[in-house]
Amino acid sequence: MNFLSTLYRSLLAAPYLGLAGAGKFLLSAWSNRTFHIRPKGYRHSLSVRGRTSDRMVLYSIFVEQQYPVDASDQAKHILDAGANVGYASVYFAHHFPDAQILALEPEENNFRMLEENTRCYPGIRRVKGALWKERTTLSMANPNAPSWAFQLTDQAALNGNKVPACTVADLIAEQQWPRLDLAKIDIEGAEREVFSANTAWLQNTSRLYIEVHDDQQPGSAKALFEALSGFRYQLKVAGDGFLIRLEGQKPQNAEPESAARR
User: Fold this and answer.
1) Which is deepest, 4, 59, 81, 185, by most CB within 10 Å?
2) What residues contact 141, with CB distance under 8 A and at least 6 apart?
3) Cα-Cα end-to-end distance for the chain
C-alpha cells in the first residue's frame, strides 16, 4: 500500500470526516482494529474494519459522494441492494430522514456490521438476503472474497453458505410500497439475473444507482439496457456506476433517442 497516496486521500477526507476521522481513516489502512468514524454533519459514528474494503467504501460514499443527492429530490421508499456494511443506507437516511429504507445484504459478517452501523436509524430495515430473478435459495460462490466482492450463484456449492433470494417486486409487495423512489443496486454481477426477468417494477421506479459488472458476469449491461429499452430516461456516470432517472415508458412508436437521454 502506497503511503503517500493513502496520506493524500486522508487529507482530502478531512473536510468530510473531520481531522480525527481523517486520522482514523489513515490508520485503518494498516491496523486491523475497528475504527469509529463520524462523518461531518452526522449524529452517529460508523464502524470501519481496518485493512478491509470498508475504508474505501466509506471514502467513495462520504468523501467522493458516489451517490449524488439533489436538494430537490424526494424519496420516501428506498432499496439498498448489496448494502454491504450500511454506509449507503446511512447516507440516504441522512439526506432523506423521512424515508423508509430497505437494506439488503447476503453475507453474514457484512450483515452484522450493517446492523451495527444502522441501529440508530429507525427508518432503515435490514434484511439478510439477495436480489435475483425469482424467489429461491442461492449459494455464496466466493466466500473468501474481499467484503465488497461477494458473488452468488444458483449452482450448488460445497461451502454450505446458503442465502435466501427474491425479486425487487417481491420486496416492494412485502413492504406495501406504492412505488420505489430510489434503488441503489450494487450486487456484483447478479444484476444480469435481476434485469433479465420480472422487471415490471421499473414502471413505478424513479431513480436507479447501479453498478454493472460485465467483467464478472458478461451480459449484465445487456440485460440492464434491454430492460430499460421501453423507457425514457436520463443517464449519467456516478462514481463507479450510473445514475438513471426514469421518465416513464416510451410510446410504442417512439423514435430511437440519444444515449444521454433515452
Assistant:
1) 81
2) 150, 151, 152, 153, 155, 157
3) 42
Q: How far apart are CA 97 and CA 1, in angstroms?
A: 37
Where residue 240 falls among pLDDT bands split at 50, 70, 90?
confident
- Ordered by start, the domain boundaries in the chain are 1-64, 67-249
CB contact set of 144 (below 8 Å; sequence gap of 6+): none
Look at residue 109 and tell me whether its pLDDT is greater than 70.
yes
In sequence order, what are the beta bridge partners of 35? 48
- Per the structure block, which three cell numbers stand in for 67? 451517490
Quick one: cell of 248? 416513464
pTM for this model (two decimals)? 0.91
pLDDT of residue 261: 54
User: What is the distance between the alpha carbons of residues 177 and 140, in angstroms, rounded to a whole number?
Assistant: 29
Task: Write the pLDDT tens digit of every residue in 202-212.
Answer: 999 999 999 99
Q: Where are the alpha helices (DSSP H) in 62-165?
A: 87-95, 108-118
Q: What cell numbers appear for 129 in the block?
A: 438476503
CA gap 137, 147 in Å, rounded: 20
- How many helices and strands (H and E) does the chain possess? 7, 13
